[in-house]
Amino acid sequence: MMLADTTQLALRNLREAVLRTSLTSLGVAIGIASLVGMVSFGVALQDQVLGNFLRSGVFDSITVTPALGPMARGRGRGNAAQRFREAIGPSREAPAGVRLDDDALRKMAALDKVKEVYPNVRVPVEITFGDFSEFSAATGVPMSARGEGVFQQITFGRFFPNDSDDTCLISLDFARRISDGKPEDLLGKDLTLTYASTGGPAQASPLGLPGGLNIQRIEKKFRIVGIVERQAAPGPIGAMFAAVMIPLAKARQMGTYDLSNPQGILRQLTDKGSYTTVTVKVRRPQDTEEVEKKIRDMGFTAFSIADLMQNQKRAFILLDLLLGLVGSIALTVASLGIVNTMVMSILERTREIGVMKAIGGSDEDVRRIFLIEAALIGLMGGAFGVVLGWAVGRVINRGANYYLQSQGAPAANLFLIPWWLVAGAVTFALLVSLIAGSFPAMRAARLDPIRALRHD
Amino acid sequence: MALAVETQDLAKHYTMGQAVVRALDGVTLTVTRGEFVGLLGTSGSGKSTLLNLIAGLDRPTSGIVKVFDRSLAGLSRQELSLHRRKNVGMIFQSFNLIPTMTAAENVALAMMFAGVPRAQRERRARELLEQVGLGGRPLHRPSELSGGEQQRVSIARALANDPEILLADEPTGNLDSKTGHEILALLQALNANAARTVILVTHDGSLASRFAQRTVTLSDGRIVAESRS
Q1: Which string of b and e fits B57-72 if b means at least 16 CB within 10 Å?
Q2: Where are the domains of chain A?
Q3: Could A16 and B100 be called an inter-chain contact, meaning their C-beta atoms sit closer than 8 Å?
Q4: Judging by DSSP bridges, how do beta strands B3-16 and B19-32 pair with one another?
């Protein structure tokens, strides 16, 4: 028997019991809707948490720090979180030989699949703007970051026009702190950054350090050209807390002597020409692991956010599974509805099944007719369920956002339905229906034709 | 002469509670190809059971059924369904048409199982309906047809896959005598013109002897009489 004919017979069966078919499909639809609702909530949650990282464009970057001595030799054994702590924690050991200097940077840049390498330069500065003054750090941002990561969307203003002018970008939070309510008014105004420098011209004043070191305090004005919503995070270490971002070239000129910490300056001077952290950008996020390994082989400690994400992702998959399981309860009940409907349908058609067998229908033909009948119920229910789940999600989302906004929180998308969820839900509905229908269909196929023919 | 059907010592026993019902109790019978045989007997004599065994709808307790020299005993369920599809066409007392299908769809259904493409089976269904005298009513549902017309549809359906043997179980049982005669005349014509073997089960001895070439009378599951008309 041809599949088209079997399907035609199954459809005819469904049409003859429109009410029963629709109610059973509705049951499946409600089951699928609850499943879709639950999972899409999990997906949205994951997006809220991990999406920020994804959008910050940190998946293609590796943070390199000098090797951490004996600890670093045990690398690869600890999990990602441990490596993360190692990387950001204070360096407990003296750097073991290999220096993270310009020479090392050139070697890394020459590696296969590496897009660019730049040092993460944070210049400890004192920020002054009118009456406002605080010790902080200015982060060096490479020109190549234009349009990437957090710079994809610049809330007000624009990216640095070039790296030779004294311009800066500030974070929205910082802008709110120093402005009187209208952060956009800051554009075009000047911030004063005060930093320390070895040797240098003009307005410098000696700091009175021992050993006759010529450390000077320099004040420099930077024009605010843009305000970004989130702070730049070129790596997990880098500039997490940077309020002010300046062109990398400027930052490198300024040096990283901490005005508030004279001892630190001394240590830095002895280790001149090397960097604390370097960011390596790879061409594609998939290449991260490979390049990371090569850099470790060079004797450095390398860490990428992708390592950390792996664990987080696993946790979210578990959460999705759990939510899916809860959502499946309704579907389980619906599948019993399918069994019930199929048993009824077969009972009503017992005589018909007998006739079909008497005129040459095989067990398999009969089985398929009823299996397809169940599958069609599942498909209809699945498709409608996805729509229903989406609609209910929208309604809840609207209500929740109304509440969130009334509480002053930003609006969030609480339900996300990616294409794989649509396909997965419909496939799952189909699968569940096939399983639910298989037992009744088997019973129909095994019916004794003589008894079936006598049935009224 | 080649045999269409052959049974040897065929028995079918049912257990009903404690009692064993011997529906068939050692029937040996041969039907040659192209023959029109009437199986006579009262209700419960075993004639329908014999027909079902030949159709492959049921399996015997003991004994042998051969159709075209092939025993049905060793056939799987799937092979039995092929036997019903190709070798035999069944006609029932209560017509057993599918009420939600039109006359043409009922006839075409048998060809669906045989995998005949749609256009071809629709054409043949109309031809067959014409052949049984129902050319003008292919789109009527069984409920819109008279008993005689319904039985004609069921004969057309039995012919759908062009079987050589027609098995008719009390085909006139639900019809008035005039219509019954017409139906049997139709079967007789199919037997005579198309050389189909017809096995007719009936309790009406006069009808059987009028249309069949030979009558076999069963009682309590045994053959008690045979006669040629």
Answers
A1: bbebbebebbbeeeeb
A2: 3-54+312-454, 121-274
A3: yes
A4: antiparallel
Q: Nearest Cβ partner of B96 from A355, A360, A365?
A: A355
Tens-place pLDDT, residues A210-246: 444 566 788 888 999 988 876 544 444 344 456 888 8
Q: Write the pLDDT tens digit of every residue in B214-228.
A: 999 999 999 999 998
Contact B113 A362 (CB under 8 A): yes
The phi, psi pair for A115, rounded to 5°, reads -85, -50
Q: Is the ipTM of this complex over 0.90?
A: yes
The whole-angstrom distance between B229's CA and the closest CA on chain A is 30
Interface mutation vs chain A, best among B58, B112, B118, B170, most A CBs within 10 Å:
B112
Q: B81–A361: do the CB atoms touch at under 8 Å?
A: yes
Q: Which residue of chain B is at minimal alpha-carbon distance from A351?
A: B96
Could you tell me the residue ranges of all domains in chain B? 35-60+74-228
CATH architecture of B35-60+74-228: 3-Layer(aba) Sandwich (3.40)
Smallest CA–CA distance, residue A370 to chain B, in Å, is 15
Q: What is the dihedral of CA B52, B53, B57, B61, to 10 degrees?
A: 130
